[in-house]
From TrEMBL:
One of its GO terms (cellular component) is cytoplasm. It comes from Inhella crocodyli. It is found in: Cytoplasm. PROSITE patterns: PAL_HISTIDASE. There is a cross-link at residues 138-140 (5-imidazolinone (Ala-Gly)). This is Histidine ammonia-lyase. GO terms for biological process: L-histidine catabolic process to glutamate and formamide; L-histidine catabolic process to glutamate and formate.
Length: 500
C-alpha cells in the first residue's frame, strides 16, 4: 500500500492495523528541505529548541555542537520509562505507520533515513516492545514513542511471539539496520500523539465489529421476547432526523423481516408497548453510532496530523503545542460513552429475558426453574461488566496533573483515555455474548416457530460453537466461545452501518 502522508483513510488504517500489506512512500521531496534547515540550525549559533538546547524545563540550557547527537540519544534513553503490559501488535503497527506518515509531510526536519527505518520495521514485522502506561498525552506520548524509537535503535526490546526479546537481535534476524539519530530527530520521533491515536483507532475499529454484532443480538432478543417491530417504522425515525437512528432502525427492520415468530403474535398481543430496551434500540444504538462516527472523524484527522514540536516551515522553526492530545482525549471519552451504552442496553435486555413477567418466557430461561438456575448468574456477570464499564466511562480528559516542574502544566490524559477503551470493549463483547446465548435459549422455547432468515442464520452460527442445553451446565466456556465469535465478527448483522 502506498503511504500518502496527510491522506490516510480509516479503511487504510484498518489494513495497517491488520498488517496485511507492506507500506511504500514514493514522494520524499518534502523531507529534504526541512532536514536541511535543521542541519543548518545545528551548525549555527542561535539557540533552537530541541536542536541545540535541553528539553522541557531545561530548554534554556545550551548544548555544544559536538554533543548534539548525544543529546538525541540521551533523550530517547531517559524517556523510555514506560510500565505495564505491552501495547498489542496492531497498535504498534499503527504507531509506526502514522509516525512515518507524519514525519514524511516534511514539517519535522528529519532525514529520509528516519522515515525509511519506520517503514522497514513495519514491513519486516518488527514490533517494538512498548509498555502501555506512562504517558499523560501532552508533550507527545513521550514514553511509548521513546520505547518504539529505542527498539529501532537496537537498544530496547522487541515483542516476538508475545515474548520480550532484545531489539538488536531481532533487528539482525530481520536484516534491519539500527537507526542512528541526527539533530532533532529523537525529539521529532517522540514528540507527537501517535501512541494515544493508535490506541483509540484500534479501539474504534474493534467497536465497529462489536456494534454490528450488538445490533444482531438486539434483534434476536426482540424476537425471543415476542416484541413488536412497530417501533422501527421508518416514519418514526424520519421525523426525528437523527442519522444513526434512521440507519439502525432500517437494519432492525431488515433483520426481523419475515419472522414467523413475529407473525404469530401480531394480532391480539396483550402487551401494548415493549420495554425500552427493545423499543428504543434505534434511538440508543443510533446515538452511539453517531458518537463513534464523530470520534472517527477526529481520529482520522489526528492520524494524518503533524504533532511534534518545534515545526519546520519554509525558512524558520516555530515552537507550538500540536503534541497536546486533547482532541484524542475528548474523542476517546466520547467513544467510551458509546461503548458503555451498547453494553448497558444489552445487559437490560438480558435482565428482561430472564424475567418471566416481562419476557413471557420460563424463569431464568430454564424449563425447570428451581432445580435449574438457567441464566440467573450469567446475568449477574453481565451486570458486573456493565457496572465496571460505567466506572471506566468516567472522562479521562477532565483530569490533569502538571509535569516537568510545571512547565507542562495542563495535560490531556489521552493515552489512558484511549487505552481503557479496550477493556470496555472486552467487557461489552462478553455482555453481548451472554445476550446472544440467552436470546438463542429464548428462541428454543418458541420452537417450532422460526425467526427471520437473517436471525436464524445468526442462531445457527452461534449454535455451531455453543450447543443448546436445556439443563444447567458449565456455561463459562460457552460465554468465552460466544465472545470470541463476537470479537471475531462472525455474528455481525448483515448490512450494519459502519462507524467510518
Amino acid at each position: 500500500m502506498q503511504l500518502q502522508p496527510g491522506h490516510l483513510t480509516l479503511a487504510q488504517l484498518r489494513v495497517i492495523a491488520d498488517g496485511t500489506e507492506t507500506l511504500t512512500l514514493t514522494d520524499w521531496s518534502a523531507l529534504d528541505a526541512s532536514a536541511a534547515l535543521v542541519a543548518a540550525a545545528a551548525a549555527g549559533d542561535a539557540p533552537v529548541y530541541g536542536v541545540n538546547t535541553g528539553f522541557g524545563k531545561l530548554a534554556s540550557t545550551r548544548i555544544a555542537k559536538d554533543q548534539l547527537a548525544a543529546l538525541q540519544l540521551n533523550l530517547i534513553r531517559s524517556h523510555s520509562v514506560g510500565v505495564g503490559a505491552p501495547m498489542s501488535p496492531p497498535v504498534v503497527r499503527l504507531m509506526l505507520a502514522t509516525k512515518a506518515a507524519s514525519l514524511a509531510r516534511g514539517y519535522s526536519g528529519v532525514r529520509r533515513e528516519v522515515v525509511q527505518s519506520l517503514l522497514d520495521a513495519f514491513n519486516a514485522g518488527f514490533v517494538p516492545y512498548i509498555p502501555a502506561q506512562g504517558s499523560v498525552g501532552a508533550s507527545g506520548d513521550l514514553a511509548p514513542l521513546s520505547h518504539m524509537t529505542l527498539a529501532l535503535m537496537g537498544e530496547g526490546e522487541a515483542l516476538v511471539d508475545g515474548q520480550r526479546r532484545p531489539a538488536l537481535a531481532e533487528l539482525q534476524r530481520l536484516g534491519l539496520k539500527p537507526l542512528t539519530l541526527a539533530a532533532k530527530e529523537g525529539l521529532a520521533l517522540i514528540n507527537g500523539t501517535q501512541a494515544s491515536t493508535a490506541l483509540a483507532l484500534h479501539a474504534l475499529l474493534r467497536f465497529d465489529t462489536l456494534f454490528a454484532t450488538a445490533l444482531a443480538a438486539g434483534a434476536m432478543t426482540l424476537d425471543a421476547a415476542r416484541g413488536s417491530d412497530g417501533p422501527f417504522d421508518p416514519r418514526i425515525h424520519a421525523v426525528r432526523g437523527q442519522p444513526g437512528q434512521i440507519e439502525t432502525a432500517a437494519v432492525y427492520r431488515e433483520l426481523l423481516a419475515g419472522s414467523a415468530i413475529r407473525q404469530s403474535h401480531k394480532e391480539g398481543d396483550e402487551r401494548v408497548q415493549d420495554p425500552y430496551c427493545l423499543r428504543c434500540q434505534p434511538q440508543v444504538m443510533g446515538a452511539c453510532l453517531d458518537q463513534a462516527r464523530h470520534a472517527a472523524e477526529v481520529l482520522v484527522r489526528e492520524a494524518n496530523a503533524v504533532t511534534d514540536n518545534p515545526l519546520v516551515f519554509d525558512d524558520c522553526m516555530v515552537s507550538g503545542g500540536n503534541f497536546h492530545a486533547e482532541p484524542v482525549a475528548l474523542a476517546a471519552d466520547g467513544l467510551a460513552l458509546a461503548i458503555a451504552e451498547v453494553g448497558a442496553i444489552a445487559e437490560r435486555r438480558i435482565a428482561m429475558l430472564i424475567d418471566p413477567g416481562i419476557s413471557r418466557l420460563p424463569p431464568f430461561l430454564t424449563a425447570d426453574a428451581g432445580l435449574h438456575s438457567g441464566f440467573m448468574i450469567a446475568h449477574v456477570t453481565a451486570a458486573a461488566l456493565a457496572s465496571e464499564n460505567k466506572s471506566l466511562a468516567h472522562p479521562a480528559s477532565v483530569d490533569s496533573l502538571p509535569t516537568s516542574a510545571n512547565q507542562e502544566d495542563h495535560v490531556s490524559m489521552a493515552t489512558f483515555a484511549a487505552r481503557r477503551l479496550h477493556a470496555m470493549i472486552d467487557n461489552t463483547a462478553h455482555i453481548v455474548a451472554i445476550e446472544l446465548l440467552a436470546a438463542a435459549q429464548g428462541i428454543d422455547f418458541l420452537r417450532p416457530l422460526r425467526s427471520s432468515a437473517p436471525v436464524e442464520a445468526l442462531y445457527e452460527r452461534l449454535r455451531q460453537d455453543c450447543a443448546s442445553h436445556p439443563a444447567d451446565h458449565y456455561l463459562a466456556p460457552d460465554i468465552e466461545r460466544a465472545a470470541a465469535l463476537v470479537q471475531g465478527g462472525a455474528l455481525q448483522a448483515p448490512g450494519a452501518p459502519h462507524v467510518g
